[in-house]
Amino acid sequence: MNAMTKDETQVMTLEAVQQPVAIQQGALAANSPMGMMMAAMNHGASLEQVEKMMDLQDRWERKEAEKAYNAAFAAFKAEAVRIIKGRKVTDGPLRGKEYAELHDVVDAVTPALSRHGLSTAWKLTKDEPQWLEVTCTLKHTSGHSESVSMGGPPDAGGAKNALQARASTKSYLERYTLKAICGVAEGGDDSDGNPPPVSVPLEILAPAREAAMNGWAALSAHIKGLSPAHRAALEPESYALKKAAKAADEKGAA
Predict the structure, then answer these.
(1) β 83-84/186-187 pair status
(2) 20 and 27 in contact (C-beta within 8 Å)?
(3) What is the reported pTM?
């Protein structure tokens, strides 16, 4: 066996002395930070030594939690969760296109996540008049978590009032951040035997499609606000986006 380092020996020593410590009215939990500290000091350890041991223990626990998260996420991915597009656009330039609503994504991923000790939660991390940001966090029972964030302006299309515009964007961002953090995609696409097109990341393509539904001016403004790298990544979808924007303008003029 390899010789243990001084820090590893200290952790082993700290774990060995985790015994209940009585303090005044009641017993202190042996595995609480104070209980561990008091037990170690009762065995001759200095406060500085205790702090080092507890820091090492904390780092070890975080690393073990990350390992457990990674194993659980790999098991979740092995289930090959498939999201069915249950809704079809009935009007506008994207008429006939199918997509999954938020509840379709939640219903698809939740059972598999739960089987492996994983769960998701959203938080509105930015709430400004012209910009909303949603963060989706994937957590494991070990305590480790990972997050992804996405933002966008209120969705004012379709004659929505101010509250509906914000609610629409929030739901949209929740849907895409959930798919991103879980690494899942919607099913139902068919290439008709043709080679698959160049894939544009959803976090770049989705806002551009939303802008196109509001016409050429909105699409142009959106594209101008992108970085050169994001504009280049969007290029494979440029024709479809322009066509959708033109159709939206023609519908507005009519």
Answers:
(1) parallel
(2) yes
(3) 0.57
The letter for the amino acid at 69 is: Y
Bridge partners (DSSP) listed for residue 146 = 138
Look at the block and give the residue holding tokens 């202190």: 28
CA dist., res. 238 & res. 244, Å (int): 10
Beta-strand ranges (E) seen in the chain are 21-23, 26-28, 83-84, 87-88, 98-99, 118-128, 131-140, 145-152, 186-187
Query: Which residue type does 145 have?
Result: S
Question: Nearest Cα to 169, choosing from 158, 181, 183?
Answer: 158
pLDDT at 189 over 60: no
Cβ neighbours of residue 3 under 8 Å, at least 6 residues apart?
A: none
For 31-75, what is each residue's pLDDT tens digit? 666 666 677 777 777 778 777 877 887 888 889 999 999 999 999
Tokens read off for 56: 């090492």
Q: Which residue has the tokens 């199918």?
A: 98
Q: What are residue 2's phi and psi, to 5 degrees?
A: -75, 145
Average pLDDT, the chain: 77
What distances in angstroms separate CA 229 from CA 68, 196, 239, one per listed residue?
A: 35, 22, 18
